[in-house]
Amino acid sequence: MPSSRPRPRTHAPHHFAAVDLGASSGRVMVAEAGPDTLTLQEAHRFPNRPVRTAGTLHWDVLSLYAGILDGLRVAGSAASLTSIGIDSWAVDYGLLDADRTLLGNPVHYRDTRTEGIAATAWSAVPPTELYATTGIQYAPFNTLYQLIAAQETAQLASAAHLLLIPDLLTYWLTGELGTELTNASTTQLMDPGTGTWSQEVATRLGIDLALFPPLRHPGSPAGHLLPQVLQDTGLTSPLPVTTVASHDTASAVAAVPATSDDFAYICTGTWSLAGLELTAPIRTEESRKANFTNELGIDGTVRYLRNIMGLWLLQECLRTWNTDASAPGLEALLREAAAVPALRSLVDAADPAFLPPGDMPRRIADACRATGQPAPETPAETTRCILDSLALAHRRAIGDARRLADRAVDVIHIVGGGARNALLCQLTADACGLPVVAGPAEAAALGNILVQARAHGLVGDDRHAMRALLARTQHLTRYEPAGDPASRAAWDAASRRVPAS
After folding, report:
1. Fewer CB within 10 Å: N-end or C-end of the chain?
2. To the nearest 5 percent, what fractions of the chain are helix, strand and coil?
3. Mind listing the pLDDT tens digit for each residue in 260-299?
4. Cα–Cα distance between 411 and 409 in angstroms, integer?
5. HEC string for 126-179
6. CA-to-CA distance for 415 and 439, rounded, in angstroms?
7. Could you give the C-alpha distances from 369 to 297, 313, 373, 493, in angstroms and in order?
């Protein structure tokens, strides 16, 4: 939180713009926020299309920035803005030279450049020691492995600054450099217990932490829009940019409408991030083997969670099927999937074989055949396989988190795009044997907005007040688990049938 909070202008409504960037699209959302008000609407949406050039998969970050400017222009024409905040996916970065010029488009985390890099890292810092220090689960695309993969490149040798994606876009808006804490915690270069960089890990791996600008905390000022940005967007000065929880999962968890502390969450979208909100990291060897991560959240919290492949599986299937004009739309597909027999075919939703883009229906069918299960043949059967498999992965993640943290859980909150998927929500309730509260679907944008509004003195002083406002103002749907013994037995058998990664 900033040390000097602006005094709210109580005589006028306050509107905030949230720039919320996902793996397939970006949008600028506008919200009115106050002690008893939280309304959200989309101002502008734009595509996020990765581009492969010379064998490397890149983010088209200049196109994203242009989309942000377009969105801010629309947002400013609809309301007088109090502040702007930016959140996006984690781990990826842009490099600037000494003149603060971008050295090429950022590389996409799904690029293959990090294949085999983990072995190099672990020869310098064994995985047990790396986890005991950073608390971050192994994922081949973590920033740490990306930087090791880039160590012999001319681009990294020429770099003077490294900016994670939201920090890069904030710099272009304001001209000020900074590194937001929640996103920095995903790099696998921080100590989540102290909230500071791990110099020893970086030194042993040959990573220069001086590339990262100073750390910023959610709620702190990030500068004001530059004159050129004001001209490009038609906005009026001075318009501040507020540091939010810039990792979109951190923003989404901030927007979980929990009314008690005994909750689990699943942030759904391209990924499913399933876990608990804790006050301290868990860095035991058992936790490492269970592939849990300790990422930082707002107010000194720890997001103790497991990454699951998520609705990426269905998104990639839809991309394949949409080449067929006769393919059903998503709503029809979900209705058809609901009629497919439950738990007929399952895959491990954490299997890295599903990470790259490509023919997902074929890969899912191949995985089912390899485990002696019926291979899905129709889009509806494949969709049911995906949703059953995700529900099973949710069950495992929440169950393991409860056990490792020794925490009671009374309810599971599903936020993000998956909150709109009634079949997935019901299957998750059945699989976990716990009620599911679904919503808000726009959790990342709402968390972004709430941190801005709190920094301006409008929604209370702590995350509990923010969550109480969400519970009062947002549409939520509750799903009760099937309570019959047959359902519990079927999910128990399914868990035994499909080994976890």
Report:
1. C
2. 40, 20, 40
3. 999 999 999 989 999 999 999 999 999 999 999 999 999 9
4. 6
5. CHHHHHHHHCCCCCCCCHHHHHHHCCCCHHHHCCCEEEEHHHHHHHHHHCCCCE
6. 5
7. 40, 17, 5, 19
Question: What average pLDDT score do residues 100-114 get?
Answer: 96
DSSP secondary structure letter of residue 407: -
Phi, psi for 402 (deg, rounded to 5): -60, -45
Q: What is the pLDDT of residue 499?
A: 78
All domains of the chain in start order, with CATH: 15-246 (3.30.420.40), 258-454+477-501 (3.30.420.40)
Residue type, 76: G
* β-strands 93-96, 436-438 pairing: unpaired
Confirm whether pTM is higher than 0.85.
Answer: yes
DSSP symbols for 191-225: ETTTTEE-HHHHHHHT--GGGSPPEE-TTSEEEE-
Reduce the DSSP state of residue 426 to 3 states and report it: helix
Span 146-159, pLDDT tens digits = 999 999 999 999 99
For residue 347, the tally of other CB atoms under 10 A from its CB is 28
Active centre residues (catalytic): 248
Q: Where are the alpha helices (DSSP H) in 291-344?
A: 312-321, 330-338
